[in-house]
Amino acid sequence: MSLQQAIDRNLVRYLELIPGTSAFIDARTPGSDMKDNFCIIGAGVAESSRQHVHIRETAGFNIGAAGQPPGIKNSLHSHRTAELFIVFKGLFRFYWGNNGEHEAVLSHGDVISIPTNLFRGFEVVGRDYGFMFSVLGGDDSGGGVTWHPNVIKDSQGYGLYLKADGSLVDTVDGDPIPNTEELMPLLTQDELNTFDNYTTEEMMPFVALRRDYHTISSDFSSSGVKQYALTGHPAAEYDFQVKSADDVSIMAYELSEGASIPAHNRGVKEVLINFDGDTEVCVEQDGEEARLVMTRGDVFSVPEGASYALKNLRGNSFTYSVMGSDLPGKPGCSKGV
To answer: What are 26-83's pLDDT values in tens digits?
Structure first.
């Protein structure tokens, strides 16, 4: 397989995303239905075996997305691995705590790294369809989702059953009704008491608002380049705005028209999410070179071991880099674009 063929397989276009509408136990519960769940890189924590996965190969983290109309909720749940969100469009009200008693509203370009062992959910507020990208730590996402017991209770009667192994049974789609002993047991009150809670003030250090992004000294001497360090380990070489030990980190590059950054490799897995503008990506590996153009909302998984360069083709472009380490090293540059 040529390098060009490999990178074409690693590119997922925003306009070609295929949603799943029954990925989770709450997918038909009134008020939580009408959700679109996208598995872009890796199967994430989708409970349905029928969920479409665009790229199955992962390298320490999964990239997914959630899309939903106003008023529709993603119900209270928790994870044992990192869960980070980048809001792409619309307004999302995040709520958390054992009763969902705390909240914050995030919008375009806002990033949140939600602590583990904490119940969280979200809904779209305002008038527009909302869409945001998600990052889940771990190749297997830590064994799936832990649902608040009320979510499982509320889902009864709509044809979806969650088994103890984390798989979803859909009787509307022809699956047989499972036996009671096969079902996921509900958390007890004692188990609920082991989950953490954060006030809104305590949660804000885990949020990087787009309007508050601050530039860092760029790794590249190119003009017209702004670099942002958004989430990463407190001990990292970079001064990340959100300091959290997630095993993943997020940086971003803002390029003015015609600006570029040279081919480089940080020695970790990287996935690029093109947020705004048109960005040309030039990939170098084993003496080969291949190019692609990312438009708004496209996702590209950089091949393991490859170097890549970025060039803005028009207007301003904005590209996130999700990395498979919360302690990313400085890039090794190979050559100019």
So the answer is: 888 998 888 999 999 987 655 556 678 899 888 789 999 999 999 999 999 999 888 9
Q: Are 218 and 226 in contact (CB under 8 A)?
A: yes
Nearest CA to 30 among 168, 116, 133, 155?
A: 155
Q: Are residues 222 and 239 in the same domain?
A: yes
CATH of the domain at 113: 2.60.120.10
Contacts of 37 (CB under 8 A, 6+ apart): 19, 20, 21, 23, 24, 46, 51, 64, 65, 66
Q: Distance (Å, rounded) from C-alpha 274 to C-alpha 170?
A: 35
The highest-confidence range among 39-43, 125-129, 143-147, 156-160, by mean pLDDT, is 125-129
Query: Under DSSP, is residue 69 helix (H, G, I), strand (E, B) or coil?
Result: coil
Amino acid letter, residue 318 = F
The answer to whether residues 159 and 284 belong to one domain is no
Element (H, E) at 298: none
Domain match, 183 and 248 both: no
